[in-house]
Amino acid sequence: GIQVEQSPPDLILQEGANSTLRCNFSDSVNNLQWFHQNPWGQLINLFYIPSGTKQNGRLSATTVATERYSLLYISSSQTTDSGVYFCAVDPYSGAGSYQLTFGKGTKLSVIP
Amino acid sequence: GAGVSQSPSNKVTEKGKDVELRCDPISGHTALYWYRQSLGQGLEFLIYFQGNSAPDKSGLPSDRFSAERTGGSVSTLTIQRTQQEDSAVYLCASSLSRDRGNGYGYTFGSGTRLTVV
Asked: Interface of chain A against chain B, CB under 8 Å?
């Protein structure tokens, strides 16, 4: 099956700093999503981004589908950004499957 | 509703008992998914429902697991004869209907934390 690798596995930031999280995937995808899981366990969809660039406030994401990677940028980080960031992909199988394969996540801790 | 609702939020059960987990998706979302999250395995796909089509059950780990979706809305995940390895957080998500090249993001519920003792 498709492999999803996220880096770094852990990241500690001072409040106000910027960061880039990376997601590499091993095959073509027709669905790529970034999620934030807060310390209470709630998974929040940040972006649906199988290709191109999107921005939402301090967050932005870019997926280069031909090179099989996606980047999540967090600017001016806040303590509320702490949690685990997951990249998830749906590989193009042509068989109508709609399973997301999740990476292991990047655990972000923002300290004041 | 405004979000995906799951119940119960926590469930402790004895090994060998059956459990039922409920998911109420966002109104109008025709796609519904079950995933589970455990420390050792991360987030794993279980089952996918899309409208009236036959569900994709390829992620169910054993025949003790089953799920149904009534009236295209509420879904129930049933685990029979629970085992300790079934302990995990069971997450439900829903999305708008989609086809190739026209996808939508998932909205997840808060999950049901299942503990088998």
From this structure: 30-31, 33, 35, 41-45, 47-48, 50, 86, 88, 90, 92, 96-102, 104-105
